[in-house]
Amino acid sequence: xxxxxxxxxxxxxxxxxxxxxxxxxxxxxxxxxxxxxxxxxxxxxxxxxxxxxxxxxxxxxxxxxxxxx
Length: 69
Known about the structure:
The chain is α+β, with helices and mostly antiparallel strands. The chain has 1 helix and 3 strands.
């Protein structure tokens, strides 16, 4: 995956979450769980790294903004 930009974690409460999963459905389900709790800039697709198992997904969270569930 590409490197994390300083701006993406420039303040307390900002986080970059990288998910490794067996398949797209699992990775996107994890992202959906995170998005149900915090403000999230979601990924719209997963990526596959040659020679590595499964898929990867990166999303960005702002845990300062808890959503009412």
